[in-house]
Design a protein that fits this description.
The chain is an all-alpha fold. It is built from 10 helices and no strands.
Length: about 280
């Protein structure tokens, strides 16, 4: 009796370890595919039209910071093309993930874009610039370039990516550890249940059900609470991007939990049907 009780305790501990390691493996797998993946962040910039938000923020900040009175204020405020901003953001994200030292679009590149728009405007309206106006324009160009560098290369985004990179190796290592523990525990359960396949199916069903349920409940609660809306950033563009980013990651956890729980239910129903069939066979 004592030996049977000890055996059950060992089996319970084994199932617990296996379940926790499976939960960790799935969770870290999602993290690897989102937080550690620059493609996922780039997809979120497209989804939220981040480049347009950045363009609007650059123009707004420029208008607030600009001290010059000139008819060219609005021309300069909107002189950096959105396509250029979008490409600069892509390069910034890529370089930050890969550890490149290149800064967000060099000053000369941005200045060339501003000059191009200014020249087109001046030629179209047949205007001439005196020395005072030229000095004002140069001052405004510097202000706009600084705003572009700060906004398109947001330090919020930089540190977010940088922190992800710092934890990437630890995350990969932990993922392998969790996966290894799960596989070893699962192998032991298979060996213990080799003479009773029904028992193995029940154990697997239980594991999947618990893991799926935890993912759905925890991630679902965070998703419904709109956790991302409580995060505050000084940059409106980053605020929108991060809100979408976090909500999407949480939805992945919920979806994964639903899939895992469904597999657990299917296996559970199969195990129950198998048990009933065996019971009817024995009664006959």
């Amino acid at each position: 009796m004592e030996e049977e009780k000890t055996s059950r305790i060992r089996l319970g501990v084994l199932l617990l370890i296996c379940t926790v390691s499976l939960l960790g493996t799935i969770s870290l797998g999602i993290v690897k595919g989102t937080f550690f993946n620059q493609s996922f962040l780039l997809e979120q910039t497209k989804k939220t039209e981040y480049s347009q938000l950045v363009a609007n923020e650059i123009s707004q900040n420029f208008r607030e910071d600009n001290l010059e009175e000139s008819e060219y204020v609005e021309v300069i405020a909107t002189s950096i093309p959105q396509a250029f901003i979008e490409q600069s953001i892509k390069v910034f994200i890529h370089d930050t993930y890969t550890g490149s030292k290149r800064k967000i679009s060099e000053t000369t590149e941005v200045t060339e874009k501003i000059d191009s728009v200014l020249q087109s405007y001046i030629q179209e309206h047949q205007l001439t610039l005196d020395e005072t106006e030229k000095n004002k324009i140069e001052t405004m160009k510097v202000t706009l370039v600084n705003q572009f560098q700060r906004t398109a290369g947001s330090y919020y985004l930089f540190y977010f990516i940088h922190n992800m990179i710092e934890t990437m190796e630890k995350g990969d290592f932990l993922f392998l550890i969790m996966l290894s523990i799960f596989l070893v525990c699962q192998l032991i359960i298979i060996l213990l249940s080799r003479k009773n396949i029904g028992r193995f199916i029940r154990y697997t069903s239980l594991q999947l059900g618990v893991v799926g349920g935890v993912l759905i409940i925890v991630a679902g609660a965070l998703y419904l609470s709109r956790l991302s809306q409580n995060l505050e950033f000084r940059s409106p563009a980053v605020q929108v991007l991060m809100a979408s980013y976090i909500q999407t990651v949480l939805s992945y956890f919920v979806i994964s939990g639903g899939i895992v729980a469904s597999l657990g239910v299917i296996l559970g129903l199969y195990s129950f049907a198998r048990y009933k069939k065996k019971e009817r066979f024995q009664s006959n």
